[in-house]
């Protein structure tokens, strides 16, 4: 905006600038509680001013009428904000009831589209289903041996997946090729790298990018850190309870000092160890181990390689059965799963195909049971979607678009009120979504813990919360103001 105060003092204000002085005075008072014009200034700008001709009268009336209309638009935007907040508050009360899914307070909720909502936003993770089918296909003695090797193997696939990786790279070889070593080193590093460290740190939850408190097959990853320390004559306390963190700090400091990445240093260590006989002389993979002893103070009944052989036989049978079921109507597709802003592609058996499938496979029946338990949750979400608050929010955004245009014409920010209303509503929706996440977790826990469920439904909760990715939508009120402002302000608007 031009220096209107100087123009005012020089008596050179145009009719538009006179109106702008009033507008700026009003907005400054609303923002700070202080006016920039005195009473004598106001008088001089209006009653004390005599237009030179009809053209000046028309110009003054044009912008003055537009400003008067803007004041009414501001009132109506506030009313729209209150309508949105009221509708949202009523919806939140239902979500509060849904926080306790076992209560009968949701029993009256029904919706013909509830099952469709659940099946469109859920499914079963293909690899997990294959893993559980493989485990269930084993005889009792082999299951016990598998659990002796890894107590979590019934539900967690990581240990056996890693043993399969080792079996694949060694297949038909006594020693690894350089290419196979590179591939294996990358697999180990992929497991050791904590990909959520950066987004967690950004959210105020500092986390280490590299972790040394797990296992790759039989190999403890802290032993990789110890190997690095031994190779580089770096001292460490092998008896320390905090050895994982201590070695991580030393490796990071070592890398920083030499301007190298931690990944390169760890990869160099792993490749060097592979050249010395890792997985050949030390930490022999179970697929070629004749041992029965384990680190769990219990021996397997069969040699490890026989246990692994039976596991792979059962897995092949599970995969063949799955191929037949897919031919009969199950659908498997790739889907992205987002967690902490990181997108992971997964193979999903789609909910729609599982729900429509007529076979008696256990994982199909268990999926259908979980859908049934989640129907009240779907009714809550559909009820929220049918409420008017998101439509009112879109109307509020449209008021925002109107005030953006007016801000250009009146050379000051006139969006500040609407922005406040929008921000208040968005904060309320964010709070509602946080409650929805809790509600969905409770329903999922309830559905998955019933009747010995083993094939756990994968629910894409991010697709079910209230999205603020909404475009401005013209309502009867905003359409009125669009038309009036075009009539009053002409091409400028």
Explained architecture:
The strands form 2 sheets. The protein has a 4-stranded antiparallel β-sheet. It has a two-stranded antiparallel sheet with strand order 2-3. 27% of the residues are buried. The longest helix has 45 residues, at 54-98. The protein has 3 domains: 4-50, no CATH class; 74-121 and 332-492, no CATH class; 152-295, no CATH class. The protein has helices at 4-10, 15-32, 39-45, 54-98, 114-120, 126-136, 140-149, 158-170, 178-192, 197-202, 221-231, 243-257, 262-276, 304-327, 351-356, 362-386, 389-409, 416-448, 476-489; strands at residues 122-125, 215-216, 219-220, 332-339, 342-350, 458-459. The protein is 61% helix and 5% strand. The protein has 493 residues and is mainly alpha-helical. It is elongated, with a radius of gyration of 34 Å. The protein is built from 19 helices and 6 strands.
Low-confidence blocks of residues: none
Average pLDDT: 90
In total, how many domains does the architecture comprise? Answer: 3
What's the N-to-C terminus distance? 17 Å
Q: Write out the strand line-up for the largest beta sheet, numbering strands in chain order.
A: 4-5-1-6
What is the helix fraction of residues, given as a range? 55-70%
* Total count of strands: 6
| Main sheet makeup | 4 strands, antiparallel
Number of helices: 19
Approximate shape: elongated
H-E order: HHHHHEHHHHHEEHHHHEEHHHHEH
**β-strand amount:** 5-15%
Taking all Cα atoms into account, the compactness measure Rg is 34 Å
Counting helices, strands and paired strands, the structural category is mainly alpha
């Amino acid at each position: 905006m031009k220096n209107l105060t100087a123009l005012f003092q020089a008596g050179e204000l145009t009719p538009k600038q006179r109106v702008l002085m009033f507008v700026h005075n009003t907005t400054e008072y609303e923002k700070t509680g202080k006016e920039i014009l005195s009473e004598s200034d106001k008088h001089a700008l209006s009653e004390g001013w005599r237009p030179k001709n009809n053209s000046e009268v028309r110009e003054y009336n044009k912008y003055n009428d537009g400003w008067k209309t803007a004041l009414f638009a501001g009132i109506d935007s506030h009313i729209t904000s209150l309508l949105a907040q009221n509708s949202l508050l009523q919806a939140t009360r239902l979500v509060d009831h849904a926080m306790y899914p076992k209560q009968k307070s949701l029993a009256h909720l029904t919706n013909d589209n509830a099952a469709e909502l659940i099946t469109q936003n859920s499914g079963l993770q293909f690899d997990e289903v294959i893993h559980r089918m493989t485990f269930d296909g084993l005889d009792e003695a082999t299951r016990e041996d598998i659990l002796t090797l890894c107590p979590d193997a019934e539900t967690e696939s990581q240990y056996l997946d890693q043993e399969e990786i080792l079996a694949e790279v060694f297949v038909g070889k006594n020693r690894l090729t350089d290419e196979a070593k590179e591939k294996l080193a990358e697999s180990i590093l992929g497991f050791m790298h904590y990909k959520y460290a950066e987004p967690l740190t950004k959210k105020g939850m500092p986390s280490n990018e590299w972790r040394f408190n797990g296992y790759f097959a039989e190999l403890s990853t802290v032993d990789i850190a110890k190997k690095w320390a031994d190779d580089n004559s770096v001292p460490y306390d092998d008896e320390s309870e905090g050895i994982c963190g201590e070695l991580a700090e030393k490796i990071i400091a070592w890398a920083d000092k030499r301007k190298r990445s931690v990944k390169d240093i760890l990869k160099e260590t792993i490749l060097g160890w592979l050249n010395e006989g890792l997985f050949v002389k030390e930490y022999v993979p179970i697929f070629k181990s004749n041992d029965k002893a384990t680190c769990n103070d219990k021996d397997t009944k069969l040699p490890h390689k026989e246990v692994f052989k039976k596991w792979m036989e059962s897995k092949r049978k599970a995969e063949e059965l799955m191929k037949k079921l897919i031919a009969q109507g199950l659908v498997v597709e790739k889907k992205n799963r987002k967690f902490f802003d990181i997108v992971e592609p997964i193979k999903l058996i789609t909910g729609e195909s599982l729900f429509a499938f007529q076979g008696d496979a256990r994982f199909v029946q268990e999926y259908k049971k979980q859908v049934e338990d989640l129907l009240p949750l779907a009714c809550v979400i559909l009820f929220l979607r049918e409420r008017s608050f998101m439509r009112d929010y879109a109307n509020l955004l449209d008021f925002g678009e109107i005030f953006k245009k007016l801000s250009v014409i009146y050379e000051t920010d006139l969006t500040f009120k609407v922005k406040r209303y929008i921000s208040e509503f968005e904060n309320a929706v964010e709070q509602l979504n946080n409650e929805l996440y809790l509600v969905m977790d409770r329903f999922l826990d309830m559905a998955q813990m019933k009747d010995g469920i083993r094939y756990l439904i994968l629910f894409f909760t991010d697709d079910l919360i209230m999205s603020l990715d909404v475009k401005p939508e013209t309502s009867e009120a905003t359409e009125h103001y669009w038309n009036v402002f075009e009539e009053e302000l002409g091409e400028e608007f």
